[in-house]
Amino acid sequence: xxxxxxxxxxxxxxxxxxxxxxxxxxxxxxxxxxxxxxxxxxxxxxxxxxxxxxxxxxxxxxxxxxxxxxxxxxxxxxxxxxxxxxxxxxxxxxxxxxxxxxxxxxxxxxxxxxxxxxxxxxxxxxxxxxxxxxxxxxxxxxxxxxxxxxxxxxxxxxxxxxxxxxxxxxxxxxxxxxxxxxxxxxxxxxxxxxxxxxxxxxxxxxxxxxxxxxxxxxxxxxxxxxxxxxxxxxxxxxxxxxxxxxxxxxxx
Length: 252
Prior knowledge:
Layout: H1 3-8, H2 15-23, E1 27-29, E2 32-33, E3 46-48, E4 51-52, E5 64-69, H3 85-89, E6 96-98, E7 106-112, H4 115-123, E8 130-136, H5 142-150, E9 164-167, E10 172-177, H6 184-190, E11 196-204, E12 207-208, E13 217-219, H7 222-228
Parallel strand pairs: 7-11
Antiparallel strand pairs: 1-2, 1-3, 3-4, 5-7, 5-13, 6-7, 8-10, 8-11, 9-10, 11-12
């Protein structure tokens, strides 16, 4: 079994987090630092930061929750960080966030203990809609709304994709993005001289924040879980080629 899958199936990390731990040299197999792509064989001892990982749990109760994250909570699984999201949620299972939401932002974020679904969602992250309500420090001009929606050149040569922006009030906008650059909305607004005073994520794909109170979480519904990762269409069984009967001999 691949090492990152082994760590993921322990229920403590996603595969992406496992890869980060391996790259940082914090994982060993039988006492030796493990490289990315390493295999774990039966009888191997795997450690993370010196602590033995007990191995993949065969039956793990999958958990999928939606949290209305308050401002001040950091989307990290590092328990040493004050205000980390894992301690804040305090779920009986070891859960980790799917993606991120800035410390100074609030709103919807999903958490799970299913490392496979985390990878599937993040792999397709740029194609998934995320919706935000944003309050800035001064009145926004219609021209700036159109310009931001058309794409913005950011620092370090980054460009934002076209997106949907709706003006809800003099200083209030609704952003619908299919891209996940770091602090993207704040940087987009900053490029036109606006400072974001409040930012709330209200939707991820088909999952809505709704009336969930700040700081509270709920379990996803079966329908919401099914929609996180599109099911692969079953492939039709290969058709058997009909064998032609052998040619008959010619009559003489």
